[in-house]
Amino acid sequence: MNIDDSGRHGGSARPTVSIVIPAWNEQDYLGECLDAIAAQTDPPDEVIVVDNGSTDDTHRIAVSYPFVTVLEEPVPGIVPARNRGLNAATGDVLARIDADSIVDPDWVAVVRAHFARAGAEEVAGITGSGDALIDGHPALGHLLGKATLEYGYYPISEMLTGGQVMVGCNMAITRAAWEAIREDAFPDHTKVHEDLDLSVLIHRADGHIHHLPEMRIRTRRVELEPPAKLWWRLRIWPNAVTRHRTPAMSMWSRRNRESRSGPKPRARIRRARKGRRRRPEGPTMALTDRCQHAGRRRSARLYGQVCLPTGTPW
């Protein structure tokens, strides 16, 4: 599976840009996000808001902007909403931001210029930087954004995947890249980190991801997550990599190879005496379904049932 641009746009053409915004109960943030898009120095060719069953004024706010196309996605979850928007978008470049992302005035210009300059053969995806908006404390917001993305998410994710990754609140990929990987994208963000999953798929399709510091967004959504949700994020973080068995995860691969060799003879004897253990009930990931013997119980804990602790679709 390789990314093939099929001649849609080269390094000198002006690619069209679609922006996709998944939204669920975002009435407090969506207006400022769309205002920032309306103020672009280089307007996008298309803006799509995907309403994922909001029960507040998200839909009303979205339809009040004449340049916005509003789609409905009844299946709950950010991945179905994201996929609905990316599949419907018509641009050469498919940008994806969150409903609380406030893009800089030259954001679209930066995205369009980079793809036009590099060409789809050179770059399949791009991602950028972000700051938190804390009224009266701009330096603190910038530091928080740096700590979260530049010193946290990006370097840790790159150690896991072996390459540059994207973040969903500030990213763009070519249409050719999306069409090449969309069938393999994992459908459930509560078990696999959706942004890492797309990044790994692009690398596996021989695509390149660039990080552009000048591709900047800001957000007012600054909140301290409860320990249960933070632990959930840490648990699903490696799953986007382990499900593809990338070389960067040699430790995980070695553990899997050892477990595939079967349990030790003494373990086989104990299992023969105690009888076959029953498989755990409930939804599990595909990798867990292959954990058939006691020697893989550690892997089962890593890949096993992972639930979003908040009880919400997002």
Q: Can you put this structure into words, describing what you see?
A:
This protein has about 325 residues and is of the alpha/beta class. Helix content is about 40%, strand content about 15%. The protein has 13 helices and eight strands. An eight-stranded mixed sheet has the order 3-2-1-4-7-6-8-5, with helices on both faces.
- The helix tally amounts to 13
* Overall shape: globular
**Percentage of residues in strands:** 15-25%
Q: How far from one another are the termini? A: 30 Å
Helix percent reads: 40-55%
Oligomer: single chain
Strand order of the largest sheet: 3-2-1-4-7-6-8-5
Q: Note the run of SSEs as H and E.
A: EHEHEHEEHEHEHHEHHHHHH
Report the biggest beta sheet as strand number plus sense, adding barrel if it closes.
Answer: 8 strands, mixed
Mean pLDDT: 81
Question: What's the Cα radius of gyration?
Answer: 21 Å
Count of beta strands: 8
**Low-pLDDT runs:** 249-311
Strand-pairing-aware structural class:
alpha/beta
List the helices and strands and how they pair.
Blueprint: E1 17-23, H1 30-38, E2 46-51, H2 58-63, E3 68-72, H3 78-88, E4 93-97, E5 102-103, H4 107-118, E6 125-132, H5 138-161, E7 170-174, H6 175-181, H7 194-204, E8 209-219, H8 227-236, H9 239-242, H10 250-260, H11 265-274, H12 286-289, H13 297-303
Parallel strand pairs: 1-2, 1-4, 2-3, 6-8
Antiparallel strand pairs: 4-7, 5-8, 6-7
